[in-house]
Each structure stands twice: as C-alpha cells, then as structure tokens.
Amino acid sequence: MGLATAPAFAEAGKLKAAGHRVIAVSYDVGDDSQVEAMVARTVDEFGRLDAAFNNAGVMVNNASVGALTGNPGIGSYIASKHGVGA
C-alpha cells in the first residue's frame, strides 16, 4: 500500500471504523537508516511486526548514466533486512 493510499483509508475512517489501528510513515526505501526507523516506529506503536508487504520499487531509465550506478533492488533488501529482525 502506498503512502498516499494508507492515509486516504485512515482519513476516510474505513480502517479505523473497522477497529484497526493505523499509521502511515513516509520514508526512502533506499536509505537504510530511514527503513530501520520505520520498522522501529511500527514496533513501538504495535508491539511487534507480524507481516510485511515488501512492495518497494525503483524505476530506472536504462538509457541514463544514473542507471549505471546504484542498485535498483536495494530498497527491497533493506526493508526485508529490518523487517525480519523485528
């Protein structure tokens, strides 16, 4: 679920009305410290992390010089690394 979707559901009251506790956290999946902080906030709020939907994606323009650097899959790795440890 994207950041824009989660607050929309929460603000509409659909999840809260169904008895769910909801938080939305904005973070960069490619930044290890931000992902670690997101997982920590989730654990602080709910006491544990039962499941993770690791749907992070990075679009890369293969025709650009930028495609030659970095790792498009790093966000998924970082999210999994911190999620498993929770």
SSE topology:
Layout: H1 5-12, H2 14-17, H3 32-46, H4 74-85
Report on this model:
- This protein has 86 residues and is mainly alpha-helical.
- The protein has a single domain (5-85), classed as 3-Layer(aba) Sandwich (Rossmann fold), CATH 3.40.50.720.
- It has helices spanning 5-12, 14-17, 32-46, 74-85.
- The protein is globular.
- The model has no long low-confidence stretch (mean pLDDT 73).
Structural class: mainly alpha
Examine the secondary-structure arrangement and name the CATH architecture. 3-Layer(aba) Sandwich
Model regions low in confidence, pLDDT < 50 over at least 5 residues: none
Spell out the CATH superfamily: NAD(P)-binding Rossmann-like Domain
Radius of gyration, in Å, reads 15 Å
Overall shape: it is: globular
Number of strands: 0
Q: Strand content of the residues, in percent?
A: under 5%
Average pLDDT metric: 73
Order of helices and strands: HHHH
For the biggest sheet, the summary is:
none
Q: Span between N and C termini? A: 20 Å
Number of helices: 4
CATH topology: Rossmann fold
Helix content: 40-55%
The CATH first-level class comes to Alpha Beta
Give the tally of structural domains: 1
Q: Multimeric state of these chains? A: single chain
